[in-house]
Specification:
The complex is a heterodimer. Chain A is an alpha+beta fold. Helices cover about 55% and strands about 15% of the residues of chain A. Chain B has 3 helices and 13 strands. The chains are: A alpha+beta, B alpha+beta.
Chain lengths: ~130, ~180
Amino acid sequence: MVRIVGRRPGKQLTPFEFVLIFFMGGVTLTPMVGNDHSITNALCTIVAIALTHFVFAWLKQFSPTFGRIVDGTPLVLLEKGHWQTETMADMQIQEEDVMALARDQGLKTFEEIEYAVLERNGDISIISVQGKS
Amino acid sequence: MSTEHAQPVPNSVHKVSDEVEVGSDLDFQRRWWRFERVWILFLIMVVLDALGFFGRGWPAKAHRWSRDGTMRVKYERIERYRRPSVLTVEFGPNAIHDGKVRLWVSETLVTPLSNQRIVPQPASSVIGQAGILYTFPATTNPASVEFAMEPSSVGVYPLSLRIPGGGTNDENHRHALEI
């Protein structure tokens, strides 16, 4: 069913898609462990969720505004030595979180980071001064 | 690579400092942050639930006496859909006649309140007059009966209880309760 619904790399999954996939797993369990042992019900529920995912993906393709509402937009956290404090406060991200990811990419100091971007899937991308040039 | 299904597109992705294509939209995000304040409603909902405003708490619990004091009913104002709840009827000395207590309950008890169990079991139950007439054996006070319900529908449902006395309408009214 997941294969039919669409192909998307795991790291590209947005929080909304994560919820859909876990939800699909949850309703799959219902006919196995719940009081409702109906395969028909389970199949219809799973198909309904898959269809929702498909419709949402289709709408996102045609309406950027809808995509922004469902998945949000990337947000700049650090720009050329300046922390974007408003964004960081509202997204509840600390400087230490960004620095930890920078170290993960082999960057040693704050000065080596040119940009830090909070992506739609929740990852933080680090663009180094060296990497940009 | 075939270009049959490919076409050049104008680059509309927003750039930061005119050099990094991020596609951020801070104006939209600011509007979204304002919208996110809706979580305060969620907090209020959780607090109300913890206090019991959606059932199972002190605001939901209630009890009422009939006008002449022959019967008291303890119940929950707010029941939860398909979750068990107990309605207790306590009888005063005037309710017991010849070692029996008779109690008429409106048919709301069966549908939609879905009565599952009565403790103690009635000696008899008779259907009629838009309700059920139960007869319970009783010897001494305090006497009480419990109805274990599991509502099968969502909505506001009045429940009537009455101890049939066979007297005048006014007398019957004094032995009755509407909840």
